[in-house]
């Protein structure tokens, strides 16, 4: 099983004064990385990303968890050092533990459709988690242990890479393909379905995982030919760019400068940490590439195409209307490919 190491420090203590983590690993033609950063070291409401792989069955899982700080701002847990942590902080970490336990059960039983079991694991662990700290925060918007989830379960075989995206909230899963670039595999739980409008508005979520109310897990399946890249990310990675295309630009530009997966993870961390206004988490797996050099070469032409298309050329000094017009023009050309594999819009 490939999986990021568990913290050596007690829960709630920062790994480092800088509040970030990068990790990478390789297994045959599978290469994986995770990136995790905190705005407030030791108190970030993104749980550490999950990247797990079961060697005997070839099943893999990528997952990220973003505690919902607005509705989960109430204190929920006091650490051994006396520090208090929010309901959102605790909810994301409980959901990570539940998802990891679910994956271990799935690969042991080789169940194909196990979405109800994941929801059962999440509800069981969230209900068992202590939430003893009292709070004066009340109201209809309050949630107990609220968090998003975006996960991709995958398995590579003779017929390609079969994948299942599972989500709740506004964290996302993607595919990055050499020919087509970045494709969203999930659809945010918001009333706004347009990804550019979501960047402009940051609409409230209509569904999150939590302990005190029912929630929905959505799922979407598909298959890609190898080679391909799958990833899951919280909005700290994709929510602070001018257009959805610029998230792809970030991925490809850092890939083109990296010499291995570890350096790619570190370049992503260095690029996103000063730019984002939030905690940021990403979990990624590249499948079907014999070595990192092949992965980098496979996306070189796509990177050049993205640059030629003007997705990076923000109008300088022409005011917000010029930027808005540029966003609309580039989004019209980028959107069909970006949404090619998205699930249908729900009623």
The overall average pLDDT, rounded, is 89
Low-confidence stretches: 5-16, 133-137
Helix content: 25-40%
| Strand percentage | 15-25%
Q: Looking at CATH, which topology would you report?
A: Phosphatase 2c, domain 1
Kindly provide the name of the CATH class: Alpha Beta
The main sheet orders its strands as 1-2-13-12-9-10
Q: Please write the string of helix (H) and strand (E) elements.
A: EEEEEEHHEEEEHEEHHHEHHH
Largest sheet: 6 strands, antiparallel
Rg of Cα set: 19 Å
CATH architecture: 4-Layer Sandwich
How does the helix and strand content classify structurally?
A: alpha+beta
Oligomer type: single chain
> What is the CATH superfamily label?
PPM-type phosphatase domain
Note the gap between the termini: 39 Å
Q: What coarse outline follows from CA principal-axis ratios? A: globular
Structure annotation, total helices: 9
Tags for this entry?
347 residues; Phosphatase 2c, domain 1; 6-stranded antiparallel beta sheet; 5-stranded antiparallel beta sheet; 9 helices; 13 strands; globular
Describe the protein's topology.
Blueprint: E1 20-27, E2 30-37, E3 50-54, E4 59-64, E5 75-78, E6 84-86, H1 87-109, H2 115-128, E7 149-157, E8 160-168, E9 172-177, E10 181-184, H3 195-201, E11 218-224, E12 228-233, H4 235-238, H5 244-257, H6 261-272, E13 280-287, H7 292-298, H8 300-308, H9 319-338
Antiparallel strand pairs: 1-2, 2-13, 3-4, 4-7, 5-6, 7-8, 8-11, 9-10, 9-12, 12-13
Helix pairs in contact: 1-2, 5-6, 5-8
Report on the structure:
This protein has 347 residues and is α+β, with helices and mostly antiparallel strands. It has helices at residues 87-109, 115-128, 195-201, 235-238, 244-257, 261-272, 292-298, 300-308, 319-338; strands at 20-27, 30-37, 50-54, 59-64, 75-78, 84-86, 149-157, 160-168, 172-177, 181-184, 218-224, 228-233, 280-287. The relative contact order is 0.16.
